[in-house]
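Still learning. Show one?

>
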Amino acid sequence: MHAAVDALGNPVYVHLSGGQEADGKHFERIIEALPTEVKAVVGDKGYDTNAVVERMEEHEAEVVIPSKKNRTTERVIDKNLYQDRNKVERFFLKIKQNSAVATRYDKKAACYLAVVHLASIMCWLK
């Protein structure tokens, strides 16, 4: 599951993918769903690809993604801004309080995504 949250940790976009797929391949769908006035994108090392960095530079947004070990030049990131990545982790913890999200009882991805959307709505309502 991939998610984008706003500065307060409220969900903006949620996307499902296969468990064995790389995170960076799904970044394009996430960025298309975000508002155009995004100033910075904070992510983990799974999103550290040249395509992601180039796409964010096109949007003139700051890339706050730590470099993978195999990068020849390490990117300097804002450590204070990177600490805000925990808002995404806290969002996942909130929706996993719903046992249907945490255990994934649904067999079909569409049904599971519907449950995730309902749990996301509950985050907005609280």
